[in-house]
Amino acid sequence: MERNYLKKQLTLRLVIYCAAAILLYGAAAQYHSSAPSLIKRTDEPVNVLLLSNPPIFIAYNPKFKKAVVNNLPSSKKALTAEEILQKAKINEDKVITVDLRPEKRIEFWDGFKSNLQSWRVKPYIIFSYFYSYIKLKWKGKTDLSFGDFILISAELSTLKTSDFAVQNPLVDKIIKGKKQKETPISITTDIKPNQTAQGPLVIEVFNASGRNGLAGEVTKFLRDLNNRGVINIDVINYASYPELLEKTKILDNTARLLEIQQTAYQLGLESREIYSQRDKNAISDVKIILGKDFVLPKRSK
After folding, report:
1. Beta carbons of 104 and 52 less than 8 angstroms apart
2. Could you tell me which of 159, 247, 238 has the C-alpha nearest to residue 205?
């Protein structure tokens, strides 16, 4: 009995000492951080280049707690971090690099979203996360310091999947008889929410679930929320989508991210990332495409 008691006490003290050491290290790191905007809460982005297959460039705005996820185009030749940043005309000194190769982008991103949603109910994920960082650092696959790792980890713990706006690469059209140009690397680092927009959030709802009448039901639900003053929106169109989708998608056209996030929350879609299109010719601020996975909430939150 005494031995078990002593073991428990020693284990508890070890955990407390380790936690205290990490907190102290994180506090000290604030004075030597390569991401000072995280501490000062400015709108200067924290930039992270993830070398997956294909690569991802994430720009996070600490002031608004929003991130834009740039899915970069694939290339026949695996590009180095320096080549990617040079083509995108981004200062290499202001970018944290993590080499995830040979991991595929879709596998990494799906795993990241899952962990971001579930770490509170599955705390053991944190240990796996720390182990992954230590392994990458040991192999020289990242220039992320331990102090910045602690700061970024603490920041991630406050975010939801809907805080990430995904931007897919532009794909050049193939023209017969002409050699296809290499897809340019275009990176968006400005993720400031549009705070100057006036009036209600204009929405289009599309049914890609295969269930008859779902777009109409969602439109009625959203208009009821608007009439009760829960959210300020205007659903101008609802229709069927030309193809069936397994998962629901939210497509942003005008960067009214805070309002889109509020609407997504009411629809039970707060765990979904927002796909950024920024279409100047769009007639709505956001398109909600309902997939087979969508379940209409019984009441507003």
Report:
1. yes
2. 238
- Is 43:61 a contact under the CB 8 Å cutoff? yes
Residue 155's alpha-carbon distances to 115, 150, 163, 204, in angstroms, are 14, 9, 12, 33
Helix axis angle for 146-156 and 2-29, nearest 10°, is 100
Q: Are 55 and 108 in contact (CB under 8 A)?
A: no
**What is the H or E stretch that residue 203 is in?**
strand 201-207
Torsion sign (Cα): 19, 22, 25, 30: negative
Instruction: Using the Cα atoms of residue 41, residue 49, residue 123 and residue 134 in order, give the sign of their dihedral.
Output: negative
CA–CA separation, 203 vs 218, rounded Å?
Answer: 11
Instruction: Give this prediction's pTM.
Output: 0.74
Q: pLDDT tens for residues 130-175? A: 899 999 999 999 998 888 888 888 889 888 888 888 887 754 433 3
The radius of gyration of the chain's CA atoms, rounded to the nearest angstrom, is 22
- Length of the chain, please? 301
Q: Which amino acid is at 111?
A: G
